[in-house]
């Protein structure tokens, strides 16, 4: 009985204990929380002294949401600017609408090109296409070109080997790509396939992509080719020289 009562008393005593932070502890915790500005600013970052070489993390956190609404669409760079938008980061869609004027091209990561057999191609990812967003972005930023990324998805070595030197396959592939781009009201495509093949196959790949580019241009569509840095084992970055036909790439 004494053991039972002792255990019961200990249980009740422990259940009545509550942990609280002292005022000094609360101040320390609050001091570690960096402040953020949530309202827009009347001045651009240059005039607020934010474009510096000795940037502090605290300043980035404080100012990263405080953009100048009057300058949101003004482009300071003379060249072309292409921005990627990923479906898994929905905030990118809002950024494109707010700062669309700072870009010349926007590439939503939407599309995949798949091969299902001889002269059988399909562009998937169309469920991610948001026509309402396309209209809204174009309304906010006149002249902005929408060029979704198209990746060759689930292609085997045999798929490439069957297509690269077959004119009928290449023609059907190009027709499929152009048809989708036109029907979805895109301005062109950003093609990602270069690093999926060994260097020995790049000549055949250039042959395929040249035909695709010609078909897209005939339909008054743009085409961009993504070429990542070429790295060989034990070597630094290699220089890539494209043949003359690729002067047609936008």
TrEMBL record:
Residues 1-19 form the signal peptide. The keyword Signal applies. PROSITE patterns: GH18_2. Residues 79-250 form the GH18 domain. InterPro entries: GH, Glyco_hydro18_cat. SUPFAM superfamilies: (Trans)glycosidases. GO terms for molecular function: oligosaccharide binding. One of its GO terms (biological process) is carbohydrate metabolic process. It comes from the Eukaryota. Keywords: Signal. GO terms for cellular component: endomembrane system. The keyword Signal applies. Saccharide- and LPS-binding protein with possible roles in pathogen sensing and endotoxin neutralization. Ligand-binding specificity relates to the length of the oligosaccharides, with preference for chitotetraose (in vitro). Belongs to the glycosyl hydrolase 18 family. This is Chitinase domain-containing protein 1.
């Amino acid at each position: 009985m004494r053991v039972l009562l002792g255990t019961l008393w200990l249980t009740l005593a422990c259940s009545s204990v509550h942990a609280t932070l002292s005022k000094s502890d609360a101040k320390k915790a609050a001091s570690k929380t960096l402040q953020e500005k949530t309202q827009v600013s009347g001045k651009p970052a240059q005039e607020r002294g934010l474009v510096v070489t000795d940037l502090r993390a605290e300043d980035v956190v404080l100012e990263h949401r405080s953009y100048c609404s009057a300058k949101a669409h003004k482009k300071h760079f003379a060249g072309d600017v292409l921005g990627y938008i990923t479906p898994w980061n929905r905030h990118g869609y809002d950024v494109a609408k707010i700062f669309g004027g700072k870009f010349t091209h926007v590439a939503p990561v939407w599309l995949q090109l798949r091969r299902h057999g001889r002269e059988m191609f399909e562009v998937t990812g169309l469920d991610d296409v948001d026509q309402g967003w396309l209209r809204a972005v174009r309304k906010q930023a006149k002249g902005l070109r929408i060029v979704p990324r198209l990746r060759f998805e689930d292609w085997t070595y045999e798929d490439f080997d069957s297509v690269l030197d077959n004119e009928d396959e290449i023609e059907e592939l190009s027709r499929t790509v152009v048809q989708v781009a036109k029907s979805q009201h895109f301005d062109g495509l950003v093609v990602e396939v270069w690093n999926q093949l060994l260097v020995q196959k790049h000549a055949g790949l250039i042959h395929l992509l040249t035909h695709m580019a010609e078909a897209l241009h005939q339909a008054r569509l743009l085409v961009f080719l993504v070429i990542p840095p070429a790295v060989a084992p034990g070597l630094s970055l290699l220089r890539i020289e494209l043949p003359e036909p690729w002067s047609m790439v936008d």
